[in-house]
Amino acid sequence: MPVAWADDGANRVAVVLEDRAVIRSDRAGEHWKPVVETLRVTSLAWDEAGTLYLGTDGQGVYRQAPNGTPVELTGSQAELAESRVVAMAVVEALEQYGTTVGPLPISITGTAGGGG
């Protein structure tokens, strides 16, 4: 059963499997190819250009270009090095700056179930 998945609203789909390996399809699930097996991926997001973003458990945010190149760490990730990225949103355009920003990670830190 998938741990997480994301689609681009067209033909691209990515899935995090139970063993945290990530696979992707650029043909609406007709054919699958591996993305990465060595990261603790917890969330996925696509941008309009077809770049796949992978949020991780304490390893930062990675991306894979539309052509399927190997994943790479995005920007300066010091603030996310110890965080678990549980959801991401890609903001496509900021009119006032005329640029694209993304993904914007939402991280949860601390321990689960720490009631009181």
CATH superfamily membership, which one? TolB, C-terminal domain
Can you give the mean pLDDT? 76
Which strands sit side by side, in order, in the main sheet?
1-2-3-4
Number of helices: 0
How many strand segments? 10
Poorly predicted ranges = 93-101, 105-116
**How would you sum up the major sheet?**
4 strands, antiparallel
Decide which structural class fits the backbone. mainly beta
CATH first level: Mainly Beta
Which overall shape is indicated by the principal axes computed on the Cα atoms?
A: globular
Secondary-structure element pattern, one letter each: EEEEEEEEEE
Radius of gyration (CA) equals 14 Å
Measured between the Cα atoms of the first and last residue, the distance is 33 Å
The portion of residues assigned to helices is under 10%
Q: What portion of the residues fall into strands of 2 or more residues?
A: over 45%
Return the domain count. Answer: 1
CATH topology: Neuraminidase
CATH architecture assignment name: 6 Propeller
What is this structure, in a nutshell?
The chain has 116 residues and is mainly beta. The protein is built from no helices and 10 strands. The strands form 3 sheets. The protein has a 4-stranded antiparallel beta sheet with strand order 1-2-3-4, with no helix packed on it. Strands 5-6-7-8 form a 4-stranded antiparallel beta sheet, with no helix packed on it.
What does the secondary structure layout of this molecule look like, with pairings?
Layout: E1 4-7, E2 13-16, E3 22-25, E4 33-36, E5 41-46, E6 52-56, E7 61-64, E8 72-73, E9 84-94, E10 99-108
Antiparallel strand pairs: 1-2, 2-3, 3-4, 5-6, 6-7, 7-8, 9-10
